[in-house]
Write the structure tokens for this entry.
Amino acid sequence: MKRVMTLLGFVLAVGAFMPRDVAAQGGVQQQGSTVVRRGVGSLGQNFPNPFNPETTIPFSVGDAPTCSDSGRQHRVTLRIFNLLAREVAVPVLKGGTSGVAGGQPISAIMVPCGQYEAYWDGKVRSTGRDAPSGVYSYVLEIDGVPLAKKMIVVK
């Protein structure tokens, strides 16, 4: 319990230095727990958060849910990083939607406009071991445009 309280204290301290309003960053807007960039897509907060041992990350591509340009394909990559900015994992696409096969790593995959979910089993890709407790960031790139959020692993 003491370890969890220490971790939560650290997260609150780190959060104090994070910008609350990112609207000035090139058309990016914060809507509740979702980061939105008009015409590109959005990145939602993972759930559950904090989590142990696995989590789901919602995101949308294009102008979903309307999808005015439904024939266009977008290059999408989702990566998870530790606080040292080292890549920890590449989540997989959850389920199969919009003609895209589920279960494939989200690394430079081509997807049409739509709403998706990613799944991370909480394992470090290089070792196969569970990721240690801590704060992680996840970065979604849609056609080279990054959207980022943070998450917490608690053991």
About this structure: The helical segments are 2-16. The radius of gyration is 16 Å. Residues 3-26 have pLDDT under 50 and may be disordered. The chain has one domain: 2-153.
